[in-house]
Amino acid sequence: MKYLLWLGCTALYLSTSLALGSKVNFSGFATIGATYSDNQNLGLTTDFLNKSYSGFTLLNESKIGFQTNLSLADKWDLVGQVVLQDRNRKTFDDFLELAFLRYRPNRNWSLRAGRVNSDLYLLSDYPYVGYAYLWSRPPNEFYSIASPANNFDGIDLEYKNHIADGFFKFRLGYGQTSPELQGANSRLGFTSKNLLLLSASYQLNNWLIRLTHSQSNFEDLRAPELSEAQLILEQAPDDIWPAKGDLLEKFDISGKAASYDAFGISYESNSWLFHSEGGISKNDWLPFSSSTSGYATLGYIQEQFTYFLSLSSIKNSDKIPTYSPPIFDASTSPELAAYFSAVSDTVTIILDSITARQTTISAGAKLDLPSSMNIKLQLDHTNISPKGYGLWDLKTPEILTTRDKVNTLSLSFNVLF
Amino acid sequence: MKFKLASILLFFICSAQAHGLVVVVNENSQIDSLTKRQVIDIYMGRFNTFPDGQKATPIDYPPQSAIKSQFYMRLVQQNERKVSTYWARLLFSGNATPPTTIASVKDIINNVRANKDMIAYIPESEVTEGVKVVFKVAEN
User: B48 vs A98: CB contact, 8 Å cut-off?
Assistant: First the structure.
């Protein structure tokens, strides 16, 4: 698999260094976005791969991307894309979005190898191109958990053709991805191996529908805080903490699998637009508990303005996990009891903070300007259920058991170049 | 009366020149005609070849050209803003690159005459030797 990534990186390098001999196209996009979130206890996480902020920030939504397309011959081309944004980890690998070599044996089939986009969602092919979609940022409830699967290292095969009066596309991909996420007060890295992706879309006039399925295996945990908690749990005597075995099994990444199924529908005319997607994720591994999420957006276009309303929601499919706390008797030393009580509290916080239960109502407007530029203004009102703070970076864990609200105001300028 | 008839005739000729758009290819191209759907396939980035599998290189006009707005509105009933957004999605998903832009009709015709894989749209009144009309863009 590393060979494929190397191939992709080579593709990117070639695409910038062999510009003279072949047809080359340089392009880019940028967003300057200001965000204000009114709940100081909750850090806004617009993308699990990025840092989170509360209050005013320019870092949540601002980004700049550069792309090179190099046509090598009639049937071969290279694409490389780098997007600079406020990633949790800042290596070149974290900024490299696309780097693939493509072969098109005929007009219907194409094969790509390297780092390719996953095509799992309506926006997963261009999630960072603010100019290309309606909102200031894609609905958090649906897209923040999707960000780790925006791209993967591997291969994919695409078929496209007309069916009846519409246009059909099918894509099959295989590979892996290794995201570094911003968890609740901690970092969480892992590898999704044996990643299998299937997507099918059909476009007819103003309508587009899309069905997707993906599955993978979790491996290679990179989470210091979680590993430390596991180590402490392992050392706990069985008679003090009978539930430790169950907890350890839930936290253990080995052998755990994930699957995701999504449906999307989009309508765009010159006056109205409607986008809606829904997804169900099923995961064995506790830190990525199963969930159902979706959104619906209705927009009205009037000259260069587009006004929109949106409703989005996420809810954990599983019950919030519970477990028996440690049991202390007269023979337990006070020091040991205090130590495991503290560990138990930490485990409770982890368990309570990994589930997401919230709904957001958004209203906004987009102003299209000449020369491929636009300005967007958006207000979000989010209701978070008790123990449903999984999409937020908690500054104070005490609020976990209460219901809370957050208002977020975003103003962004988007441009293509 | 003769003057009136001539005026009416002239009006219709001028109208045809102002509004008639045709899609042209190199006169030596093996393509003799295209359907509306096949023109959409090429200009909306669905396929990068002609129906016979030969490479197709579409030529377009710069943003905010009147002829460009007219062409896309007639072809796909979309204004230039929508077409621009559509192409941003295709380009930055790595699926296709937008048509090459050339500002003047004369330069476009010269390019099509010199390249067998090029395809362009021009006013019907500008059709000249060296290019072949493969599709007439009808008004909606």
Answer: no
